[in-house]
């Protein structure tokens, strides 16, 4: 396994690892009238997480474990830029990327003339761009005007939680996220079934070609796609593979007694790493096979990037 395929190796997204964490923004949460978007009710009951034959065991994809869930609802799509803008305009919320003054951007998305102030060690496709935030996902020279229906990106865990509070919801946990991704089926590898996507056969927004230098864009999108692009799974959920990684409410942990798991969990605790699900438009089977349902990624909670967003869950009434 190459360095970029190792857990935390940086192929999927880049952790901020800021020297001084920022305090959570002080914001008055207003009731988000009409702000819920297509929540789908899911009955409680027996479900499961993970797989007995994981493709990337070091990520903690296995073993399969049975869980019991309470009834809940999950939005059919990720939170869009338009909805996040409404939240910001209503509350005056300032994201962590705005307060840090920079964020991580995939180098292939940079507009002409963009100034790079650093890059992630070992993953030069992740660069530090001053002024990158949710309004300017690739830095000051970029705009959101033509992608308001795309997932909001450049949002940290605190930003996602603040929006969730605004609409009266919360982030889903891993078990809830996986149940929705399975769409009512137990043994699916992907939200649409078990058929592998290829550079020619398209099911979702992932990379086609040779990463990171060539993207043939067969799926129609070099970066993010609209939140309701592609066919939803049998449960009605859009883009649970690819497009953007999604924050969850769970801390990142590996359920194993192996030496690797103990060391990795110690690191995760030290850095307060959070679990994300779903993969992104940067995933490809040749180097980052993490657009499967059981795939997982860890980021520090203050991180934000070009390929990280979220969707909202709700407790049953």
UniProtKB/TrEMBL annotation:
This is Sulfatase modifying factor 1 (C-alpha-formyglycine-generating enzyme 1). GO terms for molecular function: formylglycine-generating oxidase activity. Residues 40-313 form the Sulfatase-modifying factor enzyme-like domain. Gene3D superfamilies: paralog of FGE (formylglycine-generating enzyme). InterPro entries: CTDL_fold (IPR016187), Sulfatase_Mod_Factor_Kinase (IPR051043), SUMF_dom (IPR005532), SUMF_sf (IPR042095). Transmembrane segments: none annotated. It comes from Martelella endophytica. Signal peptide: none annotated.
């Amino acid at each position: 396994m190459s360095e970029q395929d190792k857990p935390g190796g940086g192929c999927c997204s880049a952790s901020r690892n800021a020297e001084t964490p920022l305090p959570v923004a002080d914001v008055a949460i207003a009731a988000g009238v009409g702000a819920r978007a297509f929540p789908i009710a899911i009955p409680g009951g027996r479900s499961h997480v993970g797989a007995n034959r994981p493709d990337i065991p070091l990520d903690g994809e296995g073993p399969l474990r049975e869980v019991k869930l309470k009834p809940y609802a999950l939005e059919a799509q990720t939170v869009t830029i338009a909805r996040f803008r409404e939240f910001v305009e209503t509350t005056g919320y300032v994201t962590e990327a705005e307060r840090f003054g920079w964020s991580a951007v995939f180098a292939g998305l940079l507009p002409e003339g963009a100034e790079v102030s650093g890059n992630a060690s070992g993953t030069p496709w992740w660069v530090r761009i001053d002024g990158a935030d949710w309004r300017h996902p690739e830095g000051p020279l970029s705009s959101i005007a033509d992608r308001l229906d795309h997932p909001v990106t450049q949002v940290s865990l605190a930003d996602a939680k603040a929006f969730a509070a605004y609409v009266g919801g919360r982030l889903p946990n891993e078990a809830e996220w996986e149940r929705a991704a399975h769409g009512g089926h137990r043994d699916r590898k992907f939200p649409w079934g078990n058929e592998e996507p290829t550079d020619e056969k398209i099911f979702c927004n992932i990379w086609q070609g040779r990463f990171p230098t060539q993207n043939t864009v067969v799926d129609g999108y070099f970066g993010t796609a609209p939140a309701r692009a592609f066919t939803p799974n049998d449960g009605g959920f859009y883009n649970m593979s690819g497009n953007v990684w999604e924050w969850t409410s769970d801390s990142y942990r590996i359920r194993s007694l192996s030496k690797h798991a103990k060391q990795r969990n110690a690191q995760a605790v030290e850095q307060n790493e959070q679990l994300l699900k779903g993969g992104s438009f940067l995933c490809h089977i040749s180097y980052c096979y993490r657009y499967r349902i059981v795939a997982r990624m860890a980021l520090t909670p203050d991180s934000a990037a070009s390929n990280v967003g979220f969707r909202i869950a709700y407790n049953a009434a």
